[in-house]
Write a structure and sequence with these properties.
- The complex is a heterodimer.
- By secondary structure, chain A is of the alpha/beta class.
- Chain A has three domains: 119 residues, no CATH class; 79 residues, no CATH class; 45 residues, no CATH class.
- In chain A, α6 links the parallel β5 and β6.
- In chain A, α1 packs across α4, α3 packs across α5 and α4 crosses α5.
- By secondary structure, chain B is α/β, with parallel strands linked by helices.
- Chain B has a six-stranded parallel beta sheet.
- In chain B, α7 links the parallel β7 and β8.
- In chain B, α2 crosses α3, α3 packs parallel to α4 and α10 packs antiparallel against α15.
- The longest helix of chain B is centred in the middle third of the chain and has 24 residues.
- Chain B is globular and about 75 Å long.
- The chains are: A alpha/beta, B alpha/beta.
Chain lengths: 254, 418
Amino acid sequence: MIYIFDGSLTGLLTAVFEWFERKPGPTTLKVNTIFQPEAFTETVEIMSNQEKADRVWKGLQKKLKKDWQRTFYCSYLSEIPEAYDHLFQFAIYIFENEPGAAANYGNNHVIALAKYAKSVEREKHRMEAFIRFQKTGDGMFYTSIDPDFNVLPLISNHFKNRYADQQWIIYDLKRKYGLHYDLNTVEEVTINFSESATNPNPPLALMDEKEALYALLWKDYFKSANIVARKNTKLHLQHVPRRYWKYLTEKQLA
Amino acid sequence: MSDRIREKLNILADAAKYDVSCSSSGGTRKNDNKGIGDSHSSGICHTYTEDGRCVSLLKILLTNHCIYDCLFCVSRKSNDIKRAAFTVDEVVDLTMNFYRRNYIEGLFLSSGIFKNADFTMERLLLVCKKLRLEQRYNGYIHLKTIPGASEELIKEAGLYADRMSINLEMPTEAGLKLLAPEKNHADVIKPLDFIQQNIVQFAADKKLIKHVPKFVPAGQSTQMVIGATPESDKDIMYTANAFYKNFALKRVYYSGYVPISNDSRMPVLGTQPPLLRENRLYQTDWLMRFYGFKVQEILNDANPNLDVDIDPKLSWAIRNMQHFPVDINKADYKMILRIPGIGVMSAKKIVQARKFGKLRIDQLKKIGVAYNRAKHFITCADSPYQLRDYQGTQIKAFIMAESQSKYLKTDNNQLILF
């Protein structure tokens, strides 16, 4: 049996609900965007249902400690197709066993979720580290990112608490939505980059007059802090993989 | 104007970079005044320099003018280099603007000693106060304690800084006397002790009174220069151990000496910094702090120096083969932690997972155990039966044969005849 869902968390949790409703035996969960029909396996399309999803989530909260609830959510945010099936199987495994079953690192789904969550948490941490704001002429601190996983929901609080006295925008170019903090709350926003679709960075003319100076000072500092006699390119790349360089002010030539 | 500040930043960041601590962990400050800055308990490294070291803090000297002439220090009085000094406002302005752009976690402020200790400490304190009180800044501040500064100033600084540190510089008194005759360890121990007593006192008050201000919430650290003087690894780690014990330090840093002087008492210019040795010392430090090893188990009169070719944990294991093999499914956590190839995370997962059934090799691999290393020291549910016991030296040869050191560029494996 194959369950097909729409890729939403609601859909995934609904699938778990439907499985317990019907108990169809071994079932795989697939997301509709990449699903290829198979000749000999029956498929069922899952209709996302908030009420059913809420019930499943409540149930999981009873069975899972806080850290495993977060592991579950983080794995979902990885957006990896295989992760959805592991989440589905994991939920079934948890409901069919006593509380505490998540500690069974011998179980395939437990270890898979632990791995997905680790990747997502690492990406989240990297965004907290590598995001560089640019101050615009109207006092807004702006940045755009395209993280490997959908981490905006995870970093929102960190930036809200830290930069409570400045307005900021963090925009996810890949997923086409962003976060805007207006000194009170964080809200999701979408920006239409119709004019400058190729270069989403705001042009220099729109920047705060001192933005260029501080960027320059930071680049200077980055160079000065390096000890040439200890050069270790391998370690450097391990910590700052090349795909993140585009975010980093200190890694820009001009 | 911008040229002058650039030059100052270059000089004073360059002079500060030999202080290796860049940790921003342990801060507990919350942004509860709608200001700026909120600690991240484990700290954040915002970038890494090309030497692979983390950049978390804006690490600068207030000035590199100094009345001392310590041979190992780039800012020593007799060194012919450009001198500069920041004003208090310049440091505040740089910190705030870097922090607002998410370049840094906070400020690491040190200084050469100009005029006298108190004069210098006062300036450092002023920077902290301006940041905390005028700018409502709750980011991280790592402040150097200036040896010889008055207790009043040090105590006040502790109310604004997250971490304070003061460097031992050389692992032994004799080494220090050789290179910095004007200094001694007692000058370092006194303020370390004073701050530690205050940390304890504030913590005790906090139990009784609700609103006690924070006092150095991220604790103290120190640093030793390695390889400038001829101490053994045992000397170094015994000193480190004593300081961890006596002053509840959060960290001891080991800084491989980068030659900056052509004095005959020190390694000549152009000598490679002892990176491998530094690495082994940090490994030992971790074994002491997170793996339950006593320093005497790793370094003693029979083994005064750490092995170069293998790490200290493996080295301990092959010297103590009587403890192995360890049964993964039965041994207690402490013993599992001592198995080469198993770290803290894997050890924790193992003790959780084995409650659900005996663990097999494939499961251990998935948990994250470095099985090729660990297999010589463990048994699990499906370990292959082994006819003979191998000697420690043989196991070492097996492991060396299949692993590659990132430091030793040439392969120096010897043929094993027996």
